[in-house]
User: Which sequence fits this backbone?
């Protein structure tokens, strides 16, 4: 059994360092029944409660890189939620892949921080936003 | 901390912490930039020191795959530079957006 811990903490301007984490207890799932069920746990260590979003992605440019978001037949419960710091939320992902070979997928948890702006009374100003996303790769076998 | 404007550059700084056990890699998405109407072309940039950087509006950038236990702290530097040769930013709103994705393999 593999338990992976992966954090990326990135905050622009505010000076705080925070993270969200996705935990998967298995890395390989069977689609023999036609449906794949993936249980994951989500947590974070931001100072306040934050809203996180869970998404399923296909492989992108290679089998190490998440690509497009998948929505067909995908059910994520709950897909968006707000949780306090260091609390653990169980999430169930189900989908029905049409595959004939062992295929990689990525379950991703994204946090979009509040945008901070510079306003300079008619001169140049604006905002910079860096969202952080933690993904865990898993494989599905037909 | 507030972003700052100086000459033809809008800058922001921050920090990151990257923690992983097992193989992992980081991808910084293509940078989405918007600038005021009439502004000269601008170059966006985001750097996660020692990990990955990107200044492309059309291509993502990837770190090398890493293995084992990693704990890494570093600086984030972002900038938007307007290439107008006047050392000035056009008045109005500039925006830069990107996503840093870390993937456990």
Assistant:
């Amino acid at each position: 059994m593999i338990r992976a811990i992966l954090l990326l903490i990135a905050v622009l301007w505010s000076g705080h360092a925070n993270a969200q984490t996705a935990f998967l207890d298995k890395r390989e799932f069977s689609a023999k029944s036609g449906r794949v069920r993936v249980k994951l746990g989500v947590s974070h260590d931001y100072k306040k409660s934050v809203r996180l979003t869970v998404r399923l992605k296909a492989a992108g440019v290679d089998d190490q890189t998440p690509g497009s978001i998948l929505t067909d037949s995908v059910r994520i419960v709950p897909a968006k939620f707000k949780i306090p710091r260091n609390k653990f939320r169980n999430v169930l992902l189900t989908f029905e892949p049409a595959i004939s070979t062992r295929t990689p997928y990525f379950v991703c948890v994204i946090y979009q921080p509040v945008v901070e702006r510079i306003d300079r009374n008619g001169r140049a100003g604006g905002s910079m936003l860096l969202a952080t996303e933690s993904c865990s790769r898993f494989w599905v076998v037909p | 901390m507030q972003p700052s404007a100086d000459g033809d550059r809008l800058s922001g700084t921050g920090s990151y912490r990257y923690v992983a056990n097992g193989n992992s890699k980081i991808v910084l998405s293509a940078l989405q930039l918007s600038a005021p109407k009439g502004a000269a072309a601008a170059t966006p940039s985001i750097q996660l020191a020692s990990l990955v950087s990107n200044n492309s509006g059309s291509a993502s950038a990837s770190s090398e795959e890493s293995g084992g236990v990693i704990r890494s702290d570093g600086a984030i530097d972002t900038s938007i530079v307007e290439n107008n040769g006047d050392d000035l930013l056009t008045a109005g709103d500039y925006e830069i957006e990107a996503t840093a994705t870390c993937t456990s393999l």
In short: The CA atoms of residues 53 and 74 of chain B lie 12 Å apart. The mean pLDDT of chain B is 86.
